[in-house]
Specification:
mainly alpha, 2 strands, 165 residues, 58% helix, two-stranded antiparallel sheet
């Protein structure tokens, strides 16, 4: 799964290089776009997301739409705003300079998870590789990616299994 944002006026098309595929279009109507102008620059330029919190949240949105009930409209609206915030954070690093250093060790941790997702993983070992405690690692990982480490690894394993089919 990947996630792509297109500005409202930008022409685009979907193209697959094999059979199958599903698309979820999430559009913000004009009043929402006006309300969000200035706090969501991601709506004003094209952007792609292949992993992390934006994709994890999009999976939750797809799941929510697949099993609708009376609360679905409320959940979809909340998830749409969460997706927008996660994409904005991923597309721009607007954190204060002192907080940017933690991005490198989280990038290393994510790379380790991607490389070893099919092997038994220990939070303590990954945290030790990054020179942080396991508790701190879990908190910061969730803040950055919008999911727990185990949820993220499960998504990686599912994607791997789908590619093997």
């Amino acid at each position: 799964m990947s996630l792509t944002f297109f500005p409202a006026a930008m022409p685009h098309e979907n193209c697959w290089y094999g059979p199958g595929g599903h698309v979820v279009h999430l559009e913000f109507d004009r009043c929402w776009a006006e309300r969000l102008r200035g706090c969501a620059q991601v709506l004003e330029r094209a952007a792609d997301f292949a992993a992390g919190a934006p994709v994890a949240l999009m999976r939750r949105l797809v799941y929510e739409c697949g099993m609708p009930d009376s609360a679905t409209p409320l959940a979809v609206e909340g998830l749409a705003l969460e997706i927008l915030a996660a994409c904005e954070r991923a597309a721009t690093d607007s954190r204060p300079t002192g907080l940017r250093g933690r991005r490198r060790w989280l990038d290393r941790a994510e790379a380790m998870l991607r490389e070893c997702c099919c092997e038994p993983l220990s939070l303590e070992a990954i945290a030790a590789e990054c020179n942080v405690s396991a508790d701190y690692f879990c908190r910061e990982f969730r803040a950055r990616f919008g999911c727990t480490v185990s949820e993220y690894v499960r998504e990686l394993r599912l994607a791997f299994a789908c590619r093997q089919r």
